[in-house]
Amino acid sequence: MTNKQIRNFCIIAHIDHGKSTLADRFLELTNTIDKRVMKDQVLDSMELERERGITIKLQPARMQWEKEGVNYELNLIDTPGHVDFGYEVSRSLAAVEGALLLVDASQGVQAQTLANLYLAIDQNLEIIPVLNKIDLPHADPEKVEEELMALLGCKKEDILRASGKTGEGVEAVLNKLVEKVPAPTIDTKKNLQALIFDSHFDDYRGVITYVRLKNGTVKKGDSIKFIGTKTDTEVLEVGSFAPQMKPQTELVAGEIGYIVTGLKGIQDARVGDTITTKKLPADSLAGYKKVLPMVFAGVFCRNGEDVPTLTEALEKLQLNDASLSYEPENSAALGPGFRCGFLGMLHLEIIQERLLREFELDLIVTVPSVAYEVIRVDGETVTITNPSELPEPHYVEKIQEPWMNVDILTPNEYVGNIMQLVHDKRGNVNDTEYISHGNKQRVILKSILPLSALLIDFYDKLKSISSGYASLNYEFSGYQDADVVRLDVLVAEELVEALATITYKDEAQRAGRHIVKTLKTHIPRGMFEIKLQAALGAKIIASERIPPMRKDVTAKLYGGDKSRRKKLLEKQKKGKKKMKELGQGGVKIPTKAFLEILKR
């Protein structure tokens, strides 16, 4: 098959607009998967994806389609829809020439639809708009077509209508793909150049890379070189995705497939690197821009013996998910662990769940925080992701926090409430843009918000006040000055680093009260009084006390002078004071107390 008969494309859409269901129909119609073994969301291979009904990982698949007597090879990459997995989408777009822009005919254009569209335009891809779910009773394809025409500047006849559930219009979509998506361009004079867009680790075969061949060919037994890491190895197997891995004799320029490298060093094959031949090396391809983690949290094992397993697990997950970052961290309360960087709260939840399911690790995850930039009085700028790293106030000139450009797409009637929510979260609405044609029913609120405000409950409140109709997309804007302080927590007059947080100065007292009250509820009473304090520097801003358990030493008295009772109580009081001095700093905080405080 020549490169003229190859079509590489991906499906991009907002979350829950039917990407995986449409991909199912493609696989069924092209007879890639036998109908007897066909199941829903066949490309969502993870149990977690099926449970949540969302795509977490990009997934390639190769199909054969005949049009007008010519057989075509279609390489599909199914992509996630949630903003936290935008890096998966950007990597997929770099490996293809065309994109199906899928829009739910009942919901219309959403925030992530726009974000993914702009990514595809940046890559100069051929974009084919498709209305999905036209079989739903409340679908309004005419209205959504007007939105797409206004958005893309296309004609009505350019927009296809389909239903991933019933299969209606799917054949027309495949024919349009063959017609509109350009064949991959190759340079026959260049040697092997293969871009790694994903990879995973196999215990028996080492690192398996997912590649798009830009030029050249590769087959079993070839000696290859990873340009970025300068690693050499021999190819154990090549093949395509059907959608399971299917071995073949060779991969040629323009194709998407996999290479089994046999590498046991996980760091030797990185996403974005270029594979070439050892004998006739070629130039490196443009990789991917380095992704910046937005949310940071400490990850610790409940059982200290599991730390080596956690180290290995994070290495393997990072190979499979290039947007995850981590570095070692040691906590006085929780022991050795890692400070991990994530793209958002859903990303954090998914990684935590995968560590539990795939590696059977029982973990404690500390309160999520953001990265602050601290400008010291000597002019040096340092980035901190852990509250304990924040210098003392007299060393700090100013502190800056990350802000995000947030696009909120909402029906017109909820604009007032959403503007109030943005204001309450210390943000601003800079501009409004109407995308519906004629009746101005749908509005994009272009806002700017501190990232810390997005972490807690912004998304939940947005869905609540908009009756579930609003959607959002965000990207990093820059750093701005922030009036924040480090809130320390002392238990039995001993500083507990794991409970320290960075909070806005005007919210510090409320946060301090919440922490000490939670600790009082969960720390069991001991034989001496336990002081619980929240402090800003040397100033105590909130405090509670856990009274000691006390034996009734006067129970044996049955009469006599009251001085006998007083003498026994004084003796008990002295004993408690002595026990308090011996027990200072020796309070063991239950894990449950940590979890209650660190709840988002």
CATH top-level class of the largest domain: Alpha Beta
Number of strands: 31
| Alpha carbon gap, first and last residue | 54 Å
Residue share in helices?
25-40%
Question: How many domains, as an integer?
Answer: 5
CATH homologous superfamily annotation of the largest domain: P-loop containing nucleotide triphosphate hydrolases
Biggest pleated sheet: 8 strands, antiparallel
Please compute the radius of gyration using only Cα atoms: 29 Å
Could you describe the 3D structure shown?
This protein has 600 residues and is an alpha+beta fold. The protein has five domains: 3-180, Rossmann fold, CATH 3.40.50.300; 193-277, Beta Barrel (Elongation Factor Tu (Ef-tu), domain 3); 295-365, Elongation Factor G (Translational Gtpase), domain 3 (Alpha-Beta Plaits, 2-Layer Sandwich); 396-481, Alpha-Beta Plaits, CATH 3.30.70; 486-597, 2-Layer Sandwich (Alpha-Beta Plaits). It is built from 14 helices and 31 strands. Strands 11-10-16-7-8-15-12-13 form an eight-stranded antiparallel β-sheet, with helices on one face. A hairpin with a 3-residue loop joins β7 and β8. The radius of gyration is 29 Å and the shape is elongated. The mean pLDDT is 86.
Labels describing this entry:
600 residues; 8-stranded antiparallel β-sheet; alpha+beta; Elongation Factor Tu (Ef-tu), domain 3; Alpha-Beta Plaits; Rossmann fold; 14 helices; single chain; 6-stranded mixed β-sheet
